Amino acid sequence: MPVDPSAPRGFEYLYLNRKRKLSRAEVRRNLRLLGFDISRVLDICFPGPKVIGLLVHVQYKEEVISLLSTAKVPLVDGFDPLDPVNLADPELQHLSLADKANECAELQFTRCSRALSRLGTGRAHLVGPIGKYFCSKGWLDDDSLSQILSSLPPSSFASRGRDPGAAFRGDTVMSDALVSDSASAGSHSL
């Protein structure tokens, strides 16, 4: 199916409130119950106390907002994962505001790196575009993205893409169909 060149491109995190600590599996299960197509939720993160981040393609964003609205689940407007107010670790509360901001940036970098690693195991074709989105937000730098991309294992999809005919070449002699034992060759009768 051809891709519409005028269709919106890109990715966006949508942020939701949470009442308690949840695992990714619990979030996925609850989203599924709300009618979400979970395969279209590209990442689930926990960027602040009582906040869940859902990474979606911008073409799925309106559907997500509609599903959440139907379930009376509000979005967290204006959430910034780099805002030091989102640093909940009590052991880091003694830090200066600048140090808290640096800590938030490091945590967001780690979240982005982990998201790309998770995507690399099943959706490697999305790692580059999502990595560029992270870079555009200032959450990841180009050198780190290059390093992450180079550390991904080569996928069978990528190797097939280089030579699509390779899947159909190989044993052209059909040696498994030939009888090499002369004794067994004479034992066949017509």
What's the arrangement of secondary structure elements?
Blueprint: E1 11-17, H1 24-33, E2 41-48, E3 51-57, H2 58-70, H3 97-122, H4 127-136, H5 142-151, H6 156-162, H7 182-186
Antiparallel strand pairs: 1-3, 2-3
* Element-by-element helix/strand order: EHEEHHHHHH
Q: Give helix % range.
A: 40-55%
List segments where confidence is low: pLDDT < 50 over at least 5 consecutive residues: 156-160
Question: Sheet bearing the most strands, described?
Answer: 3 strands, antiparallel
Overall mean pLDDT score? 83
The count of strands amounts to: 3
Count of discrete alpha- or pi-helical segments spanning 4 or more residues: 7
| SSE-based structural type | alpha+beta
Describe this structure in words.
The protein is of the alpha+beta class and 190 residues long. The protein has 2 domains: 10-79, Alpha-Beta Plaits (2-Layer Sandwich), CATH 3.30.70.2280; 80-153, no CATH class. It has helices at residues 24-33, 58-70, 97-122, 127-136, 142-151, 156-162, 182-186; strands at 11-17, 41-48, 51-57. A hairpin with a 2-residue loop joins strand 2 and strand 3. The longest helix is centred in the middle third of the chain and has 26 residues, at 97-122.
